[in-house]
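User: I'm putting together a small comparison set for a docking exercise, and I want a reference complex before I start. The sequence is below, and the ligand is S-adenosylmethionine. Could you produce the 3D structure with the ligand included, as structure tokens?
Assistant: Of course. I'll restate your input first, then give the structure tokens for the complex.
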Amino acid sequence: MKAKKNLGQNFLIDNNIIKKISNSLNASANDLIIEIGPGMGALTKELKNKNANLICYEIDTDLKPYLNSLEDNKTKIIYKDILNSNIQEDIQDIKYNNLYIIGNLPYYITTPIIKYLVNLDLDVKEMLFMVQKEVAERFTAVPNSKDYSSITLYLKYFYNLEYLFSVSKYAFNPVPKIESAIIKFTKRLNKPLVDKEKYFKLINDAFKMKRKTLRNNLTNYDFNKINEILKQNNYIETVRAEELSEEIFVKITNTIGEIK
Ligand code: SAM
């Protein structure tokens, strides 16, 4: 079958990588795995060895000839755009211990899919995604690095993120222009104690213009209060958002009043 570029179809062909990805997901029988974009079933076949319940969302019905034979009493393919799916409804009749989500994601909508899933705030144990290497670096960045940004902190609020390993573009057919990486999201049990909406607004505003100081990005805020927190934690007033940890942003959120 000719791969459809507009659907981000780059199929995995390297068996060692396929096994390595599957082995990185801790699911076992009695669990439920959701796979996003099974494609021609390269990863799906390997995941079936775990003997867990498996639900796959694939947008492209032309892939049916490759996927039909994988369906059985524990494996179901749903031909739907993941962004228009109702996962809770689709899995409500399945009995399982833990929920896992996995996918070699189509590059053109990686971030929308991840944001969509994170926002659903499902009771999911782990999520494992293949994404563009630069995206993996941004999502797992630490303070004082160039990739550290509001999306890093947004995802970190819900999950612990880990960069597991890089994947060469030659593991795919057709060969994409970019290198890839596998990242793991593990549901966080100790979320920061903070007003979620206020915190997300603060981190968005703080990183709005990366080269500006925190003060210049937060002109709508009472900076005297913020400055108190900065001083207490040995930061100078001209600090930039990229230098501050989650802990400091949480402290700031919990100190500032209503945002004007
Ligand atoms: N898992 C296969 C593999 O590793 O060989 C295919 C991965 S390929 C990078 C991405 C897959 O996601 C394609 O099969 C594509 O048709 C599918 N896809 C693209 N957009 C989608 C969407 N919105 N919802 C569900 N599947 C989608």
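The chain has a mean pLDDT of 96. The chain has two domains: 5-187, 196-256.
User: Thanks, that's exactly what I needed.
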